[in-house]
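Standup notes
- DV: blocked on the single-chain target, sequence here:
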Amino acid sequence: MNPAEWLYRTAAREPERPALYVGPNLEASYGAFAARAGGLAAALRARGIGKGQNVALFMANSTQYLEALYGIWWAGAAAVPINGKLHPKEAAWIIEDSKASLVFVDQATGAALEGQVAGTAALVSTQSETYDGMRQTTALERPVALDPNDMIWLFYTSGTTGKPKGVMLTCTNMATMAMNYFVDVDEVKPEDAILYAAPMSHGAGLYNFMHVMRGARHIVPVSGGFHAQEILGLAPEMGPISMFAAPTMVRRLVEAAKATGSQGQGLRTVVYAGGPMYEADILDATQVMGARFVQIYGQGECPMGITALCRQDVAERDHPRWQERLASVGRAQSSVQVAIVDAQGQELPVGQIGEIVVQGATVMRGYWRNPEATAKTLRDGWLWTGDMGRMDGEGYVTLQDRSKDVIISGGSNVYPREVEEVLLSHPAVQEASVVSKQDDEWGELVVAFVVLTDAAHKPTAADLDALCLDRIARFKRPKAYHFVDSLPKNNYGKVLKTELRAQLTNEEERT
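- DV (later): unblocked, structure below
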């Protein structure tokens, strides 16, 4: 069903219940939230936008983000959330590929997109009179009815080729993910709140549904992003608060708590995911802040919905196998089946390493306008995750490695091929290979190995950095450049990235 129906029902039941906050300041009740979403829906419909069409959002976190999301769904259209950290050229590519009819932006992203967006997509800033007029339109009385398999969220996630793929997520996908949360992750009560410190275009935004259903509060920090001291100061006043955080955010939160003597008062639940959480870090986190942490494992293709490591398993220290459990990503969530298989798709015995596959109602419908990629990833009803792992006799899954070379830096995915293609666009770059380097702060850093041609004007690291900043998001650019005479390759000419990573490790050890 249409997720806007959840907002409609909550607003009809308790219109005066507080809904949207910026920091400690109330911006809208549920009645006002629903009226704004319904007004946006009516304005979108007046523009000819409804079921079967896509509307993009390219902006920083804000309460208007939620209004626009629900306005899109209320009109029956699908949302295309774009990470506000992306380079405008990257966002423009997604807007064009998704065939978005309209793009909600803020002042900064709108200015950056000017001249970048081709086609018929109109830009509407949520800080403009146009937006205010749209949300003040007489509301569409009821959300447009949608079928269970209708797409409502088009999430772009890059593959190893570097070309973003649009993941088609349906009404059923989202509803099932929300029900899994209640069963496997956490309960939500009306007095609770969710804090959006991570990008709302990703996991943090997906967790809005459960809190809308329960009539809980939605809080955007005054800063609009993640600042540990701000969160620790806000939580005691506005708690109980739940939030989604990448491991690097958890580490910073714990460090700030240590510095101030805080124990995380007001924080009820911190769901961590999006990158490797080192055992020492989660041990430190639970020691400082207690049993507030839950881990989930998911992908854009199965949003937040593959496995979960519950609060008790994260905090438990008496069980004889507590350390092995803590190193895992938990057990299959209630609506899915998870298996470890070999290259032929045969399930492997307990403890053996293979590819993680998942089947269930949270698995995507497929990739947008990409049947080849869909057929490769969805096989015989199973999603092949590309992640390698093993499962024990109790069903706990431990990630062993990624079969793809994706780099996870600060909770954000960086795909080497995408960066390599930018570097190779420089006329003096003959070859480039991008790998990860372990880092205590960010989890992984992006490092580039570059072979130059004999050109007279050879680029410096600063030149290549400027090239990357002009083409891709800042967080994707290499943090170090190694200029080498050649890249290590096998007999088939494939670059041996394992040797490059080993070289970085050896250099670090010598240092």
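- Follow-up: DSSP finds 18 helices and 26 strands in the chain.
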